[in-house]
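Priority: medium. Attachment 1 of 2:
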């Protein structure tokens, strides 16, 4: 297939936005794969702030970072992404070049614990306030469960209302796949 799949395309977007020494956010660290990918992109002098409400996510992410010798590039925060502004130091404001959300539930975890539209929209709003110009927020929306459909609809309504003078919004999806395949919403903060 020549078209990029959803997760490879998410990485392509982040690779275009993030450079060595940058500051990034993994709003839903999950099992740590995106935290590690961002830690590799920011290099030795950059930092990734990663959030999750589940202790299991922090444990998996820490183990993966340790295994890849990237632990010094990430700050793991046991809190909701809806509270991210409380945890981002002043020096990060205006300097965050990339952020990623994988919405839904922790793969291999408790499927009753899911991301919620209120905290996700709060996190997007907080990020847009502190992102660098041309910084990119990538949301991978998994909507194959009832709560996911509610979150999908809320997020789509929110991003459709963003002022085009402040942000570009992209939707990337495969429209002929069955069973509610995930799709991407990418938000680029304008200059």
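Attachment 2 of 2:
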């Amino acid at each position: 297939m020549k078209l990029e799949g959803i997760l490879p395309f998410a990485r392509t977007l982040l690779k275009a936005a993030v450079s060595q020494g940058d500051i990034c956010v993994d709003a839903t660290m999950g099992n740590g794969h995106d935290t590690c990918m961002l830690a590799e992109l920011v290099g030795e002098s950059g930092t990734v702030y990663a959030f999750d409400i589940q202790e299991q996510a922090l444990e998996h992410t820490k183990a993966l970072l340790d295994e890849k010798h990237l632990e010094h590039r990430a700050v793991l925060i046991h809190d909701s992404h809806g509270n991210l502004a409380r945890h981002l130091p002043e020096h990060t404001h205006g300097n965050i070049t990339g952020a990623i959300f994988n919405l839904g539930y922790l793969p291999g975890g408790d499927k009753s614990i899911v991301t919620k539209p209120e905290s996700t929209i709060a996190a997007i709003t907080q990020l847009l306030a502190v992102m660098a110009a041309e910084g990119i927020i990538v949301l991978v929306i998994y909507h194959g469960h009832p709560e996911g459909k509610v979150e999908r609809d809320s997020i789509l309504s929110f991003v459709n209302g963003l002022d085009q003078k402040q942000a570009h919004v992209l939707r990337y999806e495969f429209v002929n796949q069955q069973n509610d395949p995930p799709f991407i919403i990418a938000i680029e903060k304008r200059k």
